[in-house]
Write a structure and sequence with these properties.
This protein is of the alpha+beta class. It has three domains: 7-108, no CATH class; 116-139 and 183-354, FAS1 domain; 149-179 and 358-602, Sandwich (Jelly Rolls). Helix 4 packs across helix 8 and helix 7 (204-215) crosses helix 8. The longest helix has 13 residues, at 513-525. It is globular, with a radius of gyration of 26 Å.
Length: 606
């Protein structure tokens, strides 16, 4: 599709001849179209401001903002157009478009929206003092390009048979690549009133003192860093920990995104949760959504419902205010913000208590690009199916137009935390409750694949690394595994099922708790674990404890990769490399787990 428009100008001659101003749209073929302002043209910005749609006389013209050039715009004209941003319409003199369009991106990004909320003025002052607001102004990657315009069109639709990708079991995933690459952010903000009531904080200086009280003991080597734009500074750490590089919708930062998915979790065993890195270097944050009397979204919580977990630990965490109770517009073009009722911090409680646990990270959260809205307004993770459902049924259909699934592919070099070359295909699978997968989705790697994944940052310590997958399909292939570029053990052939890989046995056949524990220890020493016992695949209207959990399925298993030690300030990597003769193999990367090695002996099987 050819891009329309290189410039928009006011036609002065038309004012003289007809007494009315006109817009002239100059097309790339040299032709011009006159738009009388008597038609009340409406200017609508696209989701991220990169597009403008001029609507008039029942017509719509889509234009690229970056291509707009204004010539001969007379500042004195009072002719008006209707400008729409985020659903709000206002009358604007046509001359003002010259200043509104170039400035519009900053005006509708997250810092500007936060600045308009008087309830969070202290946090906003910290954003400005640390210059972290500058980090929240990105909205689109200008380097994201296509070889040809036709290549972009063919790659960015769900009706291209070439991108119906065969996956295990004879099914086809209907894949499309995003037409643009965006950046999104989430801010967690404590309202001024709560800061004063709970902490006696009434201004930015008080917040500075609180930041030093939290982070000086954790990072004593940096306590004298006074430059608040320095990432080691206490205030900088404080405010950047409240910022995430994802679009964190209230119900979609965990698997609580509506529908029946939550019914697959045994929520008496564990709260639904997910983990994400923040903009504070080498830090991690946990979102939890417990059920029962404690129902709601929390930050850095530990426990089950209102009770301690199996290790006897309970940390309430900070509760996030539901959007319906905010009485504020919390959505920007490149992000969203939430109120929280306590300060969130990467403090001793978080690092030594909340994080001292088995940390399970769904593969679809491992890159911020999986949790960023695309042009259609949806995230790759949990993307809607073609029929509008959140979940769907896997189909053996190679015709894209007849395949309802909507999986999102990612180009090499354009997905954070993942490194791979053009021989590797990768896509995020749309959710289906009939998949043998945790949370109903997966990251699919097609071979010959060689993928290096940056592991989420964790507190200093020694950890065991595992990943979850579904085995038994002839397409699974043989894999070399690396931690920090060091080969770990021999290659593993994932094509056989769990029974053939390590002699899988059901808990029912094993019988006693002692026999189950002995079996778990035996297969762990061989590098294997059963699937989690707190998640049950399938589609149900309510949780059914009698249904089979992933622990009871012999094809959903965890592979123990190995151990590594971190100082809490360095990056670490998992590399998965396909080897052997099969060219078009795939791996469904379901989740990874990280657990302090000191907890392995007493780890709950769930």
């Amino acid at each position: 599709m050819r891009k329309i428009l290189l410039s928009m100008i006011l036609c002065a001659a038309s004012w003289m001849a007809h007494g009315r101003s006109q817009l002239i749209v100059n097309k790339t073929d040299g032709s011009k179209e006159k738009i009388s302002l008597a038609e009340n043209p409406m200017v609508t910005f696209g989701m991220y401001g990169e597009k403008v749609i001029i609507s008039y006389d029942g017509k719509n013209k889509e234009l690229d903002v970056k291509d707009l050039q204004f010539e001969d715009v007379q500042q004195g004209t009072t002719e008006m157009v209707i400008l729409e941003i985020d659903g709000t319409k206002q009358m604007v003199p046509i001359a003002q478009l010259k200043s509104i369009v170039p400035a519009s991106i900053g005006e509708i990004c997250l810092p500007s929206v936060i600045a308009q909320d008087p309830n969070v003025s202290i946090y906003y002052a910290a954003l400005k003092a640390t210059h972290m607001e500058d980090s929240l102004l990105h909205y689109m990657d200008a380097t994201y390009t296509w070889a040809t315009s036709q290549d972009r069109i063919d790659s960015c639709t769900w009706i291209n048979d070439r991108l119906c990708i065969p996956v295990g079991g004879g099914a086809y995933d209907n894949v499309a690549y995003p037409d643009y690459r965006y950046y999104n952010y989430t801010a967690l903000l404590v309202p001024d009133a709560v800061l004063y009531e709970k902490y006696g904080i009434s201004n930015l200086d008080d917040l500075r003192k609180k930041a030093h009280a939290i982070y000086d003991p954790m990072y004593p080597e940096d306590k004298n860093v006074t430059d608040e734009t320095d990432r080691r500074n206490a205030l900088n750490r404080f405010i950047s920990y409240h910022l995430l590089p994802i679009y964190g919708d209230y119900y979609r930062v965990t698997a609580m995104d509506g529908g029946d998915l939550p019914n697959n979790f045994n929520r008496r065993k564990a709260d639904i949760c997910d983990w994400y890195e923040t903009l504070m270097p080498h830090s991690i944050l946990k979102f939890s959504f417990p059920s029962g009397n404690a129902e709601g979204l929390y930050v850095n919580r530990r426990g089950v419902q209102t009770k301690p977990d199996a290790q006897g630990i309970f940390v309430r965490g900070a509760k996030i205010t539901p959007p319906s109770q905010m009485n504020a517009t919390n959505v920007a073009y490149n992000g969203i913000y939430h109120y929280i009722d306590e300060i969130a911090a990467y403090d001793e409680t978080m690092q030594k208590v909340v994080c001292h646990d088995r940390i399970r990270l769904d593969a679809t959260t491992l890159s911020p690009d999986f949790m960023t809205r695309m042009s259609d307004g949806d995230n790759p993770r949990g993307h809607y199916w073609r029929n509008g459902d959140r979940y769907g049924t896997a189909k053996n259909i190679s015709m894209a137009a007849n395949n309802d699934s909507r999986c999102v592919g990612f180009k090499s070099g354009y997905v954070r935390n993942f490194e791979y070359d053009y021989d590797t295909h990768m896509h995020v699978r749309s959710r289906s409750l009939y998949f043998w997968s945790y949370q109903g989705d997966e990251v699919i790697l097609k071979g010959p694949y060689d993928v290096k994944i940056k592991l989420p940052s964790l507190p200093a310590g020694k950890y065991e690394l595992r990943f979850m997958t579904c085995v038994g399909f002839v397409s699974r292939g043989q894999i070399n595994m690396y931690i920090d570029d060091e080969l770990v053990g021999d290659s593993i052939d994932f094509r056989p099922g769990g029974r053939k890989l390590f002699g899988w046995a059901s808990d029912e056949n094993l019988g006693s708790d002692e026999a189950i524990a002995a079996f778990d220890k035996e297969i762990h020493e061989k590098g294997w674990m059963k699937g989690p016992g707190d998640y049950h695949c399938g589609w149900r209207s309510a949780f059914d404890a009698s249904s089979t959990s992933m622990r009871g399925q012999d094809n959903t298993i965890r592979r123990v990769v190995g151990t590594f030690e971190t100082d809490g300030k360095s990056d670490h990597y998992l590399r998965l490399e396909q080897v052997g003769d099969l060219y078009n193999c795939e791996l469904n990367l379901d989740f990874i787990e990280l657990i302090p090695v000191s907890l392995i002996e007493t780890e709950d099987i769930y």
